[in-house]
Design goal:
205 residues; alpha/beta; globular; five-stranded parallel sheet; Rossmann fold
Length: 205
Amino acid sequence: MGARGPFQDRPNLRVEALSVARGGRVLFEDLSFAAPSGAYVELRGSNGAGKTSLLRALAGFLKPRAGSIIYDNIAEPALSLHFIGHANALKPTASVRAHLRYWAGLLGGSFDEADVLARLGLRGLADRPARTLSQGQARRLALSRLLIAPRPIWLLDEPAAALDASGRALVSELVDAQRERGGVVIAAVHESLGPQPANTLTIGA
């Protein structure tokens, strides 16, 4: 799989006066920020502050109490973003290869299996069922969706969870490549993903 070209329509995400609640408790309110083409925004905050809820609201999974989420140059946001949650969403009995092929069919992507496995550090594991993978290997497999089906908006919840130093470097490389193509990355993190410049948004401050 060769290098991907830039996105034809440069995405631009705007959040205006957003308020989100969970279980009847207001997590944050009057939150506004912009993430233009090429932006990488790190979400910081204590556990329970609302980082995951913000990502879910941006993905359309959680209805805000108030405010607006605006995707400029994106006709169908649901078909133009990747949401990678904290859970890896793997089927224990399905092989690594089966997951790649399933996601390619579901997301409408195409991929070179050997290339994807090599980039993810999963070479030689194509026939292994997910239940036999280490936590780090399972996280790498979950991130394969980002390579299989390019989408201009990435919403990532602790993408480097369970990853070692090489895995964290992989995530950093993926983020940099997405930004170079003009995509937008918003990630909830406890620690910075790497040396690339980022805007930091603290939730619950």
